[in-house]
Design brief:
mainly alpha; 11 helices; 70% helix
């Protein structure tokens, strides 16, 4: 294992398509729920402990060698909104392209063949981490960080927020990030003996509602 692979996987410049998505920040800015660094931090903390926690469990389980098709079904069950399912699979398809070019492997090829329209992004990310020789905890960290770094980066563009302030938000969430990554990895350790029902299933109804509304906007800066 080379821990340097984690830096590549978590790098915002990794060509996995995340730059085109705001993680719900765009509708939150429009509704006035994100208007400065303080409200961005509140939004990111909530997202981290809901969508981020679910993603961390799925990614860690995939990195641990659990059946990715079962995990993809589990991701579907935890994503009740059609708009978010579509986004997750679109991001998964792009992540798959990047992962197969960077860390080619039979497991990635098999999932790509089984899910030609894309598997859920956290599952693909976890399998990419496994192909790169990373641990389930590494995968959980990478996907949890992506869940908050995306909205923070989007807020800089949407609000002309000072990038230093946005980065400070991410730094202040470090303890929360540790907690979520460790919880996701712990749940993943139990999947082999207890099944996918033990994975986190936290919900964020407001993110679900605004995702559907955002998908219908005729003009938008981000795809989600």
């Amino acid at each position: 294992m080379s821990r340097a692979a984690l830096l590549v996987l978590a790098d915002g410049r990794f060509p996995a398509g995340g730059h085109a998505h705001s993680g719900g920040a765009e509708p939150a800015v429009t509704a006035g729920r994100i208007k400065d660094a303080a409200t961005l931090e509140h939004f990111c903390r909530g997202r981290l402990h809901t969508a981020g926690l679910v993603a961390a469990g799925l990614a860690a389980a995939a990195a641990a060698g659990c059946d990715p098709l079962l995990l993809d079904d589990a991701a579907d069950a935890r994503t009740p909104v059609p708009a978010l399912r579509q986004i997750a699979r679109r991001l998964g398809r792009q992540m798959m392209r990047a992962a197969r070019a960077t860390w080619p492997g039979a497991e990635l090829d098999a999932l790509a063949a089984a899910r030609p329209r894309g598997a859920h992004q956290p599952v693909v990310l976890g399998l990419a981490a496994r192909s790169a020789g990373l641990t389930p905890l590494d995968a959980a960290y990478a996907v949890a960080y992506e869940n908050i770094s995306g909205p923070a980066t989007a807020a800089v563009r949407l609000l002309s927020l000072d990038p230093f302030d946005a980065t400070a938000v991410l730094a202040r969430l470090a303890a929360d990030l540790d907690q979520v990554a460790e919880a996701g990895a712990e749940a993943a350790r139990r999947v082999a003996t207890e099944g996918t029902d033990v994975l986190p299933a936290a919900s964020a109804p407001l993110l679900d509602i605004t995702a559907e509304q955002h998908a219908a906007w005729p003009v938008r800066l981000f795809a989600s």
